[in-house]
Amino acid sequence: MLSVEESRSAQKATRGQDLDSWLSAHMHAWSAYGGVAAVTVPDNLKSGVTKACWYDPEVNPSYLELANHFNAVILPTRTGKPRDKAAVEAGVLSVERWVLAPLRNRTFHSLAELNAAMADKVAELNARAFRGEATSRAELFEELERPHLRALPTTPFELPTWRPATVHIDYHVDAGDGHFYSVPYRYVRQRVEVRVTARTVEVFKGTLRIASHAREHTRRRYVTDPAHMPASHRAHAEWTPERLISWAGSISSSTASLVEKVLESRPHPEHAYRATLGIIGLARKYGNDRVDAACARALAAGAVSYTSVKSILAENLDRLPLPGPAVTPLPPEHDNLRGAEYYAGEEVEGCS
Which CATH topology does 4-148 take? Predict the structure, then answer.
């Protein structure tokens, strides 16, 4: 139940039920109310509740972070128990009748246009008096509910995304958007949690934050803090460029040459570890002979990358013979063709 002015910004449609839409809906509602209820009772939507349990539910980390920021308690309902929030179910029915039904035959060309139309209908609904009474939803909200709301936080909330990851041998983790961020090398092969916002990428081992980076939005794939790099490869001896080249050499000399060039193409050799391991790993699927031929073709074409070798194998180009060196054809012999002697200024037989 909202005031007429606030109701215009409270009711919003979203494009889906993904996590960002779920969290944004909460923020829009609390902002419209002008405060936060002490307890929020949502459905067991998968975007918000990871594990449904009446006594000890497991809430999505991003959802829990939102609740902590707004000083709210999240208590999901039981699955299939609408009585846990009976008053809300009645409100949903009113919205379906007085907001959605009147708009069902209209065509909207943008989400903003739809939300503007919904806002008008919600304002009308909240201003309408209850049947047989002189009061409205907006008036009851002002009288009974607004005084009990907690204050909104003074700082804005950044929508985070949490994802599990394993630290690769190059001591970088995948942020899920094609960019890789470094962590201290001692965490290699360990499971971590990556928290991503529009501006930052943070990596946590349990409750300990082990790395923090400004989020990269350009085409640069690797973001490396020099402090995370091993002081010497003796401390990181299990994986070195030399070992990777030697391992590739067990497949063929062409594979070793390609791996060496891939390692040389990156600012830090560690940035190429994923690509080189990918090239070596292709031998498990295609066999050493085919990978040897594919690497030889990639070297001949100057296509020094894992993607190129994989594409050559997928298209069976490794089975074709390599093109030979280009040969300039000699001109045919003919009486009317002048030779080098003519242009050297020497007298040619039959000419004066």
Answer: Nucleotidyltransferase; domain 5 (3.30.420)
